[in-house]
Design a protein that fits this description.
By secondary structure, the chain is an alpha/beta fold. The protein is built from 13 helices and 27 strands. The strands form seven sheets. The chain has a seven-stranded mixed beta sheet, with helices on one face. Helix 2 crosses helix 11 and helix 11 packs across helix 12. The structure holds adenosine-5'-triphosphate and magnesium ion (MG).
């Protein structure tokens, strides 16, 4: 359920919108989320989705979903479908049908013809290399192309022929005639059409020329009557071109572009191209691998839409650098699950404990609530039997100072159960502890023992009742904070794949309370004292449970960093 306080407050874009509504410049706001369907969405996109859909929600406006599909070679239907699914999963609904920049290709072509007729665009024959030479640099102005002064008639003729397939790929372009001496390189006669014989996921083989991003984006915004076009800061220097395109074409909409800083997440990667490389080179099992910072990966990992929205609110919206530690993301996820996930006990690294004085009829079980603060989540019996499992590291033969769990001769409370004392440690031939023999204090079920304090409480499961479960434990995917920004001795960037963590996933068999049986996929649970886990979306079945570790109970990142 969305509420208005779930979104970043008091940022500069909200201020602008509030002023625009107050002054009557706009009576309603219209935003859009404009992904290119060339990969799955990632955590950076989640920020942009929460911003665009969030603003529409807060100010009772509308937000479009528009696929910015101008690069047919890299785009496909799988990406379109995944993007729709991810936006909905995050809790948002777009206005009307999804839109496609490719829906406007006819219109964009007509506008280009109009620009040619007004002497504002020309067909150029420069090769890409020549074009680069003519473009100039940040400090030097560019030079006019020798083809810049073609007549309107010649340009029109050539542009129609470009469309009709008369020229080979890459041999000609259509460029805007703006200013080759502009201090802003984006205004040095930008290319707005190129020839490319590529099959398009939407328009098929209808076109062999495709419009370029800047031209398409500005016009798509204008066609859709977008009021506030929000993008990341690297487009700031494209804004004059955006405005030029809107002003010089007969579109009715007058969108304004505003830029905010891109989210970067440490120990992670926020680029579809690089994430695609992880998938195609097999470093991960797919786009939705639970280690991936993709929305579908995080979903499979057990992150929740509410947790991701909380994260987006916390990172906020501004123009200053937005490099965020993983602990901020995990903190938001943990905080949300703390309140929403029911609790159970599971033992990941079992040590057998024999309860020597277990007595059927005398040794009792208790019922325990699934959540200490939410009675409505219900409760279950926590059965006990002569053999139980505890976590191996909850026992220490030679306890370090301050160790509050089980030790030889020491006592500990079993969560939702009795106080037990360790009377005997059983070892194998190699000297490994293989079993503990413990006795129950039968007078401690639901009450404190007489005359002494037992501080430690540990989780456990009854061997007879426990269900085996597969558990996948995840660690960070990369070993360095900024895997795509490490330079080698020669000053060049090293491949980010050099910094993959070889131990980022481990699969084990664990034992859990029988309530884990017959769960549907995507059930979120806290395993007490360990962390949050989710039943896997793909591999979990009711009789063969598979749990992914979402996040630990404590922040282990700060320590490790
Ligand atoms: P990528 O390099 O991962 O492909 P992109 O910006 O090219 O990113 P688009 O599909 O074009 O991806 O992005 C759709 C929207 O999401 C854009 O408005 C873009 O500004 C925004 N966006 C993308 N990455 C981030 C990020 N890291 N932080 C915030 N917004 C982002
Ligand atoms: Mg892009």
């Amino acid at each position: 359920m969305l509420t208005k306080d779930q979104f970043a407050d008091n940022h500069f874009i909200r201020t602008i919108i509030e002023e625009d509504l107050k002054s009557g410049k706009h009576t309603a706001i219209q935003t859009r989320f404009p992904p290119e369907p060339n990969g799955y969405l990632h955590i950076g996109h989640a920020k942009s989705i929460c911003l665009n859909f969030g603003l529409a929600y807060i100010y009772d406006g509308q937000c479009n979903l528009r696929f910015d599909d101008t690069n047919p070679e890299k785009e496909n239907q799988e990406y379109v479908d995944s993007i729709k699914e991810d936006v909905r999963w995050l809790g948002f609904e777009w206005s009307g049908e999804p839109r496609y920049a490719s829906d406007y290709f006819d219109q964009l072509f007509d506008y280009a013809v109009g620009l040619i007729k007004e002497g504002k665009a020309y067909v150029d024959d420069l090769t890409p290399e020549e074009m680069r030479e003519y473009r100039g640099t940040l400090t030097e102005p560019g030079k006019n192309s020798p083809y810049r002064d073609r007549s309107v008639e010649e340009n029109l003729d050539l542009f129609y022929k470009m469309r009709d397939g008369a020229f080979p790929d890459g041999s000609k372009t259509l460029r805007l005639k703006i200013d080759m001496a502009s201090g802003n390189i984006n205004l040095r006669d930008p290319v707005i059409y190129r020839i490319r014989r590529a099959h398009h996921h939407n328009t098929g083989d209808k076109w062999c020329i495709y419009p370029m991003y800047d031209y398409t984006h500005a016009l798509s915004d204008a066609i859709e009557n977008i009021t506030h076009s929000l993008c990341t800061l690297e487009f700031e220097s494209h804004r004059p071109l955006y405005d030029w395109v809107v002003e010089n074409t007969p579109v009715t909409g007058k969108p304004r572009q505003y830029e905010f800083s891109r989210l970067e997440l440490l120990y992670s990667i926020t680029s579809k191209r690089k994430l695609n490389q992880l998938v195609t080179e097999g470093h991960v099992s797919g786009w939705d691998d639970p280690r991936m910072p993709t929305i579908s990966g995080m979903r499979r990992r057990g992150y929740t839409p509410e947790g991701l929205r909380l994260f987006a609110k916390r990172v906020g919206i501004s123009k200053s650098e937005n490099i965020v530690d993983m602990s901020v993301l995990e903190g938001a996820i943990r905080e949300e699950l703390e309140n929403s996930a029911p609790r159970l006990m599971a033992v990941l690294d079992p040590l057998k404990v024999t309860l020597t004085n277990f007595e059927a009829g005398k040794t009792q079980s208790r019922s325990a609530a699934f959540h200490p603060n939410h009675e409505a989540m219900g409760s279950r019996e926590v059965p006990v039997s002569p053999t139980i499992y505890i976590e191996r590291d909850d026992f220490a033969e030679n306890p370090p100072k301050g160790f509050k769990r089980l030790t030889p001769g020491g006592e500990v409370r079993l969560r939702h159960g009795y106080v037990i004392r360790c009377d005997e440690v059983v070892k194998d031939a190699a000297g490994n502890v293989v079993e503990l023999k413990c006795s129950i204090d039968h007078d401690t079920l639901g009450k404190n023992p007489e005359g002494r304090k037992v501080k430690g409480v540990i989780h456990w499961v009854s061997a007879e009742h426990a269900a085996p479960i597969t558990v996948r434990l995840y660690d960070r995917l990369f070993t360095v904070e900024r895997p795509d920004a490490v330079r080698g001795d020669d000053g060049e960037y090293l491949p980010f794949t050099d910094f993959l963590n070889p131990e980022s996933v481990r699969e084990i068999t664990a034992y859990a309370e029988s309530a884990v049986q017959n769960l549907p996929p995507e059930s979120h649970w806290q395993f007490e004292r360990i962390g949050y886990f989710v039943t896997d979306r793909k591999d979990h079945t009711a009789d063969k449970p598979v749990f992914n570790k979402t996040v630990g109970l404590k922040d282990t990142w700060q320590k490790a960093a």
